[in-house]
Amino acid sequence: MPENKKNLRCQQRRREKRALQRDVEQRCQQNMDLERRVTRSESENMDLERKVKRREREIEMVRDEARDKTIESLELQRRLDANQKQQQIGRALELINAEQQVAELQLRVQKQEFEKASLRGKVEEFAYETTVLRAAEKSRKTSTGSTAKLQLNARGRGEYDISDADIQNFYNSLRTGAGGDPRKGTVLNELIVKFFYGDFTPQGFKRYSGLWTGPPYGKKDIAVAVAKLKEQMANPMFVTKGGVGYGVDETQKVEDDGKGWVWLAAEMSSGGLVVELFKSVPYGKRAILVAKQSNVDELFQKVNWDTALANSEVTLGGPQVKQRSVDSR
Question: What is the span of the domain harbouring residue 303?
Answer without folding.
Answer: 163-311
